[in-house]
Amino acid sequence: MITNQLDSIFNSFGWTNVQHSSLTSGLINHTWKIKADQGEFILQRINTQVFNHPEWIDDNIGMIAQYLQQHTPHYLFTTPVANRNNLRLIIDNELAYRAFIFIPDTITLTVVDHPIQAKEAAAQFASFTKVLIHFPIDQLHITLPNFHQLDLRYQQFEKAIQNNNTDRLGHCKTLIESLKDNVSIVQQFKDYISNPDAHKRVMHHDTKISNILFDSKGKGLCVIDLDTVMPGYLFSDIGDILRTYISPVSEEEKNLDKIEVRKEILSAIYEGYIGTIKDSITAFEMDHFYLGGEILIYMQSLRFITDYLQNDIYYGKKYPDHNLVRALNQDRLLQLFQEAIR
Known about the structure:
Elements: H1 2-13, E1 19-25, E2 30-36, E3 39-46, H2 54-71, E4 90-92, E5 95-101, E6 106-107, H3 115-131, H4 150-162, H5 166-169, H6 173-181, H7 184-194, E7 201-203, E8 212-215, E9 220-223, E10 230-232, H8 234-245, H9 263-277, H10 283-287, H11 291-309, H12 322-341
Antiparallel strand pairs: 1-2, 2-3, 3-5, 4-5, 6-8, 7-10, 8-9
């Protein structure tokens, strides 16, 4: 029983009369809402198959929290609470756990329904990078090496074609040609990261709408889920915001006719992000705002089709051709996005 598995964790925090309910169980972490005599908390189990060094995550969050307390103490930053042994990260039976104080009267969203939501979320991610603009990023651990390294993802794509599942290759030749036709994005990525006006900054790297905490009136309060916080470039956060907000349907949608670029959401993202951070970034970074969308959408299509050709070893599948559908979805989104920004 899950309760028995968690009892030692509850005890390590000194929680009594614990009630818990599962909130999420996805690829990365499992999350529970905790109610105890001592208060309400969010408990997470870190997926150590994805994050091989959970202690690096804890170090990063601790360093950032200390920096913000010294330089921007009013900034709302969710920091894990310490247990009775003064540990923020608890390792139990090779599993890693941490807990946060639950902030009342707050909500998270799973989809973007309105431009105001997109603007608020984009502004919060921009604000996160802005308040850490002078943070010594070399101190941060790289929790996911090469996470948004597009040239590496393209190499993996080419290798998957060469070492392919022959039956599957026949199902995706048109998609492969489409992806190859967009290979210029790889060079644009290389040009971007080699430009002296593209600076490494503290980036979130996972900017889906569910990683923003909103108040009950819909105002963005802060970023959450900080496992992927590490040095990076603006295109990573901007690109993932664009990729996951602009269409009314997700990467799981099979009907490609439902994919569209909502212009009002696109404008709201730009207004929220650039409006917040423009005085802290270079003209080059501002001018290449939309390139981030191309890079991230293209990269995700590459990653899905690569996994499909490798028999679904990373993302897994819920039905036959699941990763092919995802790859086609993102390729279509890329086409529409390119039309929208030209």
